[in-house]
Design goal:
The structure is a homodimer. Chain A is an alpha/beta fold. The first copy, chain A, has 13 helices and 17 strands.
Chain lengths: ~375, ~375
């Protein structure tokens, strides 16, 4: 998966020409991730989505800019935590502070999406929401936006929950899969299927079977639906959450001081919410879920190793950012924020250097970086977390 | 070669009892090394011999202390460069400033030894000099001192150049070898041989043949001779150097301001000296060279990999100094002067971290660290050199 990260030439003109950039389409960016897998660059105040690890711009900036031809800043909302809100505001200056929905505490995606749906619906009863993680990379943004526009058209027309299913490129065991059923309809020339089932992360042989069948796609956590429809479905499948959300008055809280952590109603509500994902809480239980297959060079950048996969390597296969000298070394990912990093005779390593900490990791063990974070927590090294 | 670095129990009492700690025995420590192989810890002002890389004490401190039961500080001389003299003085406070012989510029070992011989001879016409590199490790200091004392006895009795030949423990291709000839004599119960030949670094098969024959030892650059004898031999084999040295008046220069770089006679003399090693310039040309075989856990710590060999590893085979977290990693050498270093899933690596630079090196490529230094020189990165 070495797709270029930026779309060089292809234009989004057809989106505008065909009027798909609908004025009721809102972007909801979920930016609540803790990002322990990107230690030592990421930390509590600077999780992965707030870091410039794929390009010179941060991942949340890339996410917002990727939507720009389709959704202007005035219709983009970010759900985030109090620790990160100031930095989000700094990185996305085109957003009004009222467009930041600040959760007092993380409760997984269903409450975050419910909160956003209430806010969006209050501002626009006809709103269609595109829900997007803040920390994914998209190699072909035009293909992505074209799919998003088609999904928005479907969601505007039908009371359904549309998921984007990423066309799989390998028998990956680290993702959930969406199984397509019958064709449900055609919008903007794209076929939508009913979702037959959601599947948890499979074992290797199951994943291989999925790929062969051609009916399975990766679940990227990218969804499109009317705000009113998802609120209705939350009411049907997560009635407790719906009741708690109903105690909030988005307009009122907003008028006072924005939906901030300080909002007493929000804090009280979140204290009573049980964490649950939108996938498990709603999508897997609903019979109104569609999937649109999309091939857009998606990568969730789930680890330093995944970052290596999306960056263009030099002739030795190295991806080097910052002050680096590489001698006889191949297929290394180096990212330094300060100290010079010198490599000698090493292969397939990840080296991340900050002024306070240095990570040296075998690329194939990049998922285990969280063990370092756990060990630092055990040692009480809050200075490095 | 995992010998302990410190001799725990064996006493040097027999040395004193047998009167071998001769009052005419002087120690001459050569501390002119630039230490590029220990970048980024070593640099121009702090070469390897001035760093605490084997123990908590610096290598030159270890070298001086190792001699203590045999040679008191008052008879220890250090040949070093102007850049390092202040730090040498700081690290060896028992030495008088006049015992530091400061070369205006490095000219390899023959001039350094000639200069020291003149100085030592001026202070004690009967002096026997033990010449010792400042940056070697000795696993069994008692065995080392016993050999040194025997060599001193031989050198006091005979007008010969005694080399210590290190009993080889492997077919090393990185060292020069000393080939033993006929037995030359016995002193302090030890057999001394004539040197049949010096051999440059051999190829693998030659090194294996050397080891099998049992007649070859590593040349460690450790020599014992009377100051008057080495001066005589320099006169015979390096007459140009001898003439230049003869223009110096050690007593006079010393009286003024010590033999410092500022000494105008010394600076003028060194400007005219051609660099040459004592091995090539004198030992290989002389017919008065003896060798005493010694097995003392010698290691020249020629690279970070060699340092790993002399340090006691933990249960995972790691040697970790400073603030380190190791997850699923084996046989690593980590030395950090500041930043926390975290290892994940790596094996046989060397990681050295300072506030300004981080080295990540495959242990088997540790000799290539000099290429980093060369590259930094090319880039003009004097901040890191």
């Amino acid at each position: 998966m070495n797709e270029p990260l930026h779309n060089g030439g292809r234009s989004d003109e057809h989106l505008r020409r065909e009027g798909r950039g609908d004025e009721h389409l809102h972007g909801v960016i979920l930016a609540g991730g803790l990002g322990t897998r990107f230690w030592p660059l990421s930390n509590r105040r600077r999780p992965k989505q707030l870091l410039p690890i794929v390009s010179k711009r941060t991942m949340i900036q890339e996410t917002a800019e990727r939507l720009a031809p389709l959704i202007p800043p005035s219709r983009i909302w970010v759900v985030t935590g109090a620790d990160q809100a100031d930095e989000v505001a700094r990185q996305l200056p085109a957003l009004d502070r009222s467009q930041l929905l600040i959760e007092p505490v993380g409760r997984n995606t269903a409450p975050a999406i419910g909160l956003a749906a209430m806010q969006v619906a209050a501002s626009d009863p006809q709103a269609v929401m595109a829900v997007l993680p803040a920390d994914h990379a998209i190699g072909d943004p035009t293909a992505f936006r074209t799919a998003l526009a088609a999904a928005a058209e479907a969601a505007a027309a039908e009371p359904v929950l549309v998921t984007l299913g990423i066309a799989p490129t390998r028998a990956e065991t680290g993702y959930g899969y969406i199984e397509s059923g019958q064709v449900a309809g055609t919008f903007a020339g794209r076929k939508f299927h009913r979702v037959a089932a959601f599947h948890e992360k499979p074992d290797r042989s199951t994943a291989e079977r999925y790929i062969e069948s051609g009916r399975y796609a990766w679940n990227a956590g990218i969804f499109v639906w009317r705000a009113s429809v998802i609120l209705d479905q939350i009411g049907a499948h997560l009635p407790d959450l719906a009741r708690i959300l109903a105690t909030l008055d988005p307009a009122g809280d907003k008028k006072a001081e924005g939906m901030t952590a300080a909002g007493p109603a929000l804090a009280a509500a979140y204290a009573r919410i049980t964490p649950i994902s939108i996938d498990y809480g709603v999508l897997e239980r609903s019979s109104h879920v569609w999937v649109l297959a999309v091939d857009c060079g998606w990568n969730d950048i789930g680890s330093w190793a995944a970052l290596y996969d999306v960056r263009a390597p030099d002739s030795a296969g190295n991806v080097l950012t910052g002050d680096v000298v590489a001698v006889g070394s191949e297929r290394a990912l180096v990212h330094t924020e300060g100290p010079l990093v010198a490599l000698v005779g090493v292969e397939d390593v990840v080296v991340i250097a900050t002024s306070g900490a240095v990570l040296v990791c075998a690329r194939e063990h990049a998922q285990e970086v969280r063990k370092v974070v756990e060990e630092l927590e055990r040692r009480g090294r809050t200075d490095l977390l």
